[in-house]
Automatic annotation (TrEMBL):
SUBUNIT field: Monomer.
Protein name: Manganese-dependent ADP-ribose/CDP-alcohol diphosphatase
Catalytic activity: ADP-D-ribose + H2O = D-ribose 5-phosphate + AMP + 2 H(+); CDP-glycerol + H2O = sn-glycerol 3-phosphate + CMP + 2 H(+); CDP-choline + H2O = phosphocholine + CMP + 2 H(+)
GO molecular-function term, one example from the UniProt record: manganese ion binding
Family classification: Belongs to the ADPRibase-Mn family.
Organism: Sphenostylis stenocarpa
EC number: 3.6.1.13, 3.6.1.16, 3.6.1.53
Keyword tags: Hydrolase, Metal-binding, Zinc
CDD domains: MPP_Nbla03831
Cofactor: Mg(2+)
Calcineurin-like phosphoesterase domain mapped to chain residues: 19-265
Highest rank taxon of the organism: Eukaryota
Amino acid sequence: MGSANGLIATEGKQPLFSFGLISDVQYADIPDGRSFLGVPRYYRHSILVLQRAVKEWNTKKSHKFVINFGDIVDGYCPKDQSLSTVKKIVDEFEMFNGPVYHLIGNHCLYNLPRRKLLPLLNIQSFESHAYYDFSPVPEYRFVVLDGYDISAIGWPQDHPKTLEALKFLREKNPNDDKNSPTGLVGLERRFLMFNGAVGKEQMEWLSSVLQEATKLKQKVVICCHLPLDPVASSNEALLWNYDEVMNLIHRYTCVKLCLSGHDHKGGYSIDSHGIHHRVLEAALECPAGTDAFGYAEVFDDRISLYGTDRMQSTDMYFRSSADL
């Protein structure tokens, strides 16, 4: 059945629930700047984007929750202001009349170590892990991945996960500056210090969560700051072991959508197993008076993202078992 028929079939149907979303606010009380690619960044304006988002989400009155896809403050935030700036942005999120779920990103970790960051983001964690799951309604489960589980940022310098990440980068990236992709080709360009990987324990946890979701006949939405599909993202923004993670996910038919941030321009794809991948446009790159946030309506057969301004709207219909 094509999308047109799908639209007719779902017309007039009420969604099971809806939720708000935003990514890469990267606020800092500093003058505007540019990314390493020369894209303008509006550090002070991004908090206004968030404030308008919260106001809009509250106006709807029906959103079950909001998800922040990471990088709430920027790496250029003066370090003596890191703690107060993170608190300031968290307070803005708390103005939403409902639960807020946070993901961690590289810029969060440039500002604060995990042990300080996770309590501020209300991420209940064991040994500073930032992965968790929740089920807003019986039919759906959201799985939040920690894309900086194996990472050279955020953990103490002598932590096994830091040492593992640095060893990995030495093997994969010959540059002195491990944030430089110079000389790296194609998908190898993801092996940069501002990215990270999902570790072995988290992979085992993910597998067990997907097994349980399958038994409960739940549809699953995967959330990760780092994108998981090269077609939806630039190579430089991908999770180091996105292929390993997706090989695991593809063993289960319950996963319908992967949502990410990090690659500020945004992107969209449907992979070979019919899973939708939506990378969200960054709030940071909104010029004055423009926005990048949205909300999603969740149905049994699709998820429809309604974006504001720079955030593109996307209708994502699920393939049936027969299609696959």
